[in-house]
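Retro notes (design track)

What went well: tokenization of the new backbones is finally stable.
What didn't: we kept losing track of which sequence belonged to which structure.
Fix going forward: every design gets posted as structure first, then sequence, in one message. First example under the new rule, 630 residues:
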């Protein structure tokens, strides 16, 4: 008897609930819970928000990622902004239920075993999206292999290729072991591109890959879609041919070569994903165009990103919306009804959230910011193209503006990758600028360890969200969307989502489009001095802008709308979103012979797993079955 059968607190991984899942979502990182360090930034947050929307909409989906036992990293900043890092270790054994399966794949000329842990994303009405986190830390594996699922974006390129092999090939093997038969495989970035090879091996069965034909590749491509997230060349993973042969073996490597998946004599995971997909999309209108230019031999569509409203809207604003527009949780189109909500009530919500932010700043730093002073926010992954120091291009003018408007406060946050020396240098530049401007009435703080919690506080509590990427390198940018849903306008370069979201003087302001950084900085200062600061001094007019941010941008830049577009345009283009979702629900209801899958799943799922909290030691799982993918 299996552990699930004898213990109702353990999920039954053989349940038809899994067998009826029609969409498999693969992502190297997924932000599942504030307590789990399974993400690094925007890609993981987008993945998590996608699954939260899928749970709200009862989409027939399952997800696969890696466990990342030691997380991304915890950031430490000294007095001059020098960044150091430490691990964020956690124990899946004491936190999540086991998937009760061990699968194996061949890699580096040897067999590697892979287990998984299950995290359930729970929707507003109780529907569950199971997420399986692959883990190679299993007794019997080579010591190097046991560490492969420890660090998100860690190690050298060889380590990274091994990780991506585990994700792609191991993910396919696990789903098969669990009885999941998806019609659609969604690769969220190229990290999961090797799932195409896994599906090809599965299609051929015992036959060698050398017998695969163009018809076989086309058949696999009909089942796969690919979302690319970056127009920055460094964002597309590339590996040497020698590494490809060493990790994947001669048969797989030669097959990848034979079907034209190399680029510039390198294994390029983006090109591999493109080759094995029937639908490819960028993550904003502009990014779709840029990606089409990058990959002219493929048809690239656009589905603009969104954020999960119920995750990112502040508690005071959620309470107001629940009272005045209760339908918003079910249907984000109801954000338009914010125009029937009192401006005073909207403004009061922001006053509360700003104070919550400033209280947290005081707790973290010991420094008090004035809640009445205009406060700008700039927080994102630190990379040179994001230009964190553009605000300080003319420090004398910035000081002059601050004096004219009665003070200025700026909150920065963001992590630089441990290996990114240029990014780390940018953080030090912000610290140096802050020290010089402090005496001039510009109060600047750089808050360390930018994460889910701090990101929420900043996007909810600042007065204006600032974004200054070098065009056209901002694929989308979801932090500004989170701000908008909280009534916070943006001051941003017209790139990524802001091209679609900017209604000048209604939802925010555009930094003038130019290739001259000095001119861009001048435009930023002009808008700040002549438009933003004067409007901020008029509370009623400012509240109108807050209302516009929610009413105009809220109804579009959300993951409910985004997932609807994936369902109708990418996953099941022959069906409407409503038909696609209902088809999945009908399949699951028939399989479980119960009114709703949500009710069936909820009765078998342990409460600790539903909340993402640790279980007792006596709730760990021990029954394991093994499946091998040669």
């Amino acid at each position: 008897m299996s552990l699930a059968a004898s213990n109702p607190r353990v999920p039954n991984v053989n349940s038809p609930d899994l067998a009826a899942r029609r969409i498999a979502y693969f992502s190297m990182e997924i932000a599942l819970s504030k307590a789990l360090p399974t993400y690094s930034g925007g890609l993981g947050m987008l993945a998590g928000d996608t699954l939260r929307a899928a749970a709200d909409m009862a989409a027939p989906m399952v997800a696969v990622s890696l466990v990342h036992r030691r997380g991304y990293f915890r950031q430490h900043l000294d007095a001059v902004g020098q960044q150091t890092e430490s691990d964020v270790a956690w124990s899946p054994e004491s936190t999540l239920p086991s998937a009760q399966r061990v699968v194996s794949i061949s890699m580096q000329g040897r067999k590697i075993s892979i287990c998984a842990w299950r995290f359930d994303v729970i929707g507003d009405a109780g529907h569950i999206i199971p997420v399986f986190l692959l883990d190679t830390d299993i007794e019997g594996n080579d010591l190097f292999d046991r560490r492969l699922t420890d660090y998100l974006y860690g190690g050298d390129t060889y380590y990274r290729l091994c990780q991506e092999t585990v994700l792609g090939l191991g993910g396919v093997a696990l789903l098969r072991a669990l009885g999941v038969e998806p019609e659609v495989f969604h690769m969220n970035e190229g990290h999961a591109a090797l799932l195409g090879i896994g599906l090809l091996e599965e299609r051929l069965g015992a036959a060698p890959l050398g017998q695969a034909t163009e018809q076989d590749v086309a058949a696999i491509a009909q089942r796969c879609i690919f979302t690319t997230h970056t127009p920055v060349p460094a964002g597309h993973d590339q590996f040497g041919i020698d590494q490809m042969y060493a990790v994947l073996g001669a048969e797989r490597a030669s097959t990848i070569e034979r079907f034209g998946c190399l680029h510039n004599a390198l294994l390029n995971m983006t090109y591999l994903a493109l080759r094995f997909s029937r639908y490819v999309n960028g993550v904003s209108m502009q990014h779709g165009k840029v990606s089409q230019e990058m990959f002219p031999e493929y048809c690239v569509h656009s589905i603009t990103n969104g954020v999960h409203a119920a995750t990112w809207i502040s508690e005071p604003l959620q309470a107001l919306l629940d009272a005045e527009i209760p339908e918003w949780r079910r249907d984000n189109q109801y954000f338009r009804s914010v125009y029937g909500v009192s401006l005073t009530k909207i403004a009061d919500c922001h006053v509360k959230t700003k104070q919550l932010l400033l209280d947290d700043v005081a707790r973290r730093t010991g420094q008090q910011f004035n809640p009445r002073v205009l406060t700008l926010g700039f927080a994102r992954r630190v990379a040179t193209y994001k230009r964190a120091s553009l605000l300080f291009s003319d420090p004398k003018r910035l000081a002059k503006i601050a004096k004219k408007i009665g003070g200025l406060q700026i909150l920065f946050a963001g992590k630089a990758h441990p290996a990114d020396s240029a990014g780390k240098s940018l953080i030090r530049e912000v610290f140096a600028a802050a020290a010089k401007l402090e005496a001039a009435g510009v109060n600047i703080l750089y808050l360390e360890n930018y994460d889910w919690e701090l990101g929420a506080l900043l996007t909810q509590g600042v007065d204006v969200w600032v974004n200054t990427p070098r065009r056209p390198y901002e694929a989308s940018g979801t932090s500004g969307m989170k701000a908008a849903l909280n009534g916070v306008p943006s001051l941003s370069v017209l790139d990524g989502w802001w091209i679609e979201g900017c209604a000048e003087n209604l939802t925010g302001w555009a930094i003038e489009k130019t290739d001259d950084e000095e001119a861009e900085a001048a435009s930023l200062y002009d808008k700040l001095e002549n438009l933003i600061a004067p409007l901020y001094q008029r509370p009623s007019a400012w509240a109108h802008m807050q209302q516009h941010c929610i009413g105009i941008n809220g109804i579009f830049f959300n993951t409910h709308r985004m997932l609807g577009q994936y369902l109708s345009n990418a996953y099941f283009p022959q069906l409407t979103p409503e038909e696609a979702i209902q088809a999945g629900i009908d399949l699951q209801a028939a399989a479980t012979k119960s009114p709703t899958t949500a009710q069936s799943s909820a009765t078998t799922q342990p409460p600790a797993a539903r909340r993402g909290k640790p279980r007792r030691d006596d709730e760990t799982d021990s029954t394991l079955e093994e499946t091998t993918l040669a």
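Added context from the reviewer: The chain has 25 helices and 21 strands.
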